[in-house]
Request: fold
Amino acid sequence: MRFLFRLTFWLGLVLLLLPRAGSHSASDIGVIEAVSAAKSTVSDMRGFCERQPVACAVGTQTAIALGQRAQEGAKFLYDYLNEHFEKTGAAGKLPAGAERMRAAAFGQDTLLPPDRLPAWRGPSPRREAHLAHRARD
Reply:
């Protein structure tokens, strides 16, 4: 999901900076003015909680409540799908990554057995190569 947001942002930025075909009117805004406006908007947003503490507190509580509801909804959906797959005889055949997503949603350990295997280290050097290197010294 974050990939789509990033893609949309960068694509929009590129499209904004591309030169337009056709005539240019006196009301065109330059890149410097756009960047200046963006900076002032960000600085204004930083001071929002100082100017409107009640709105900031309500927004924080709303975000927390939405997060909790999303977590409850994910748990409900997981339980429903788990029961559905058990009834259809497809128990244990959840889509790839579903177990990891469930574990991440509920704050459990997300490592799977393949993730716990030691890293590949490559073949050990041959003894003959080591001896040949010593002979050159």
User: Anything to note?
Assistant: The mean pLDDT is 75.
